[in-house]
Please model this.
Amino acid sequence: MFKETIFSKIINREISVDLVYQDELVTAFRDIEPKAAIHILIIPNTFIPTINHVKSIHEKILGRMITVAAKIAYDEGISKDGYRLIMNCNRHSGQEVYHIHMHLLGGQPLGPLLSI
Ligand code: AMP
Model:
């Protein structure tokens, strides 16, 4: 049901993005439509369509996503002021790309968590 997305092409360097970080487990790049002064996506190099598809074998990858988020936040100079990490799952969250990804948002006050 779920097919690989444009994010697979980004991981494989088949389309160009503003790449921030890549290792054997994860890739990070700047969001094409930034919602904050700093908006970076951190994605697993493995195709996992939604958080509902996460299994225990993915725990190392998911841990790396967090440690890389913290490293990028430090490198971007926003560790001290703070930032927000968001992962959307399915329709009610507004997930658009069905390859799990973590939004790293910061560089400005971010306001309330939700504005429904
Ligand atoms: P989500 O709504 O959580 O699925 O977020 C998907 C994010 O991917 C959105 O913020 C998009 O702006 C971003 N996005 C989609 N295509 C690209 C791309 N080619 N390069 C960078 N960001 C992208």
Summary: The longest strand covers residues 38-44. The chain has a mean pLDDT of 97. Residues 59-75 form the longest helix (17 residues). The chain is about 25% helix and 20% strand.
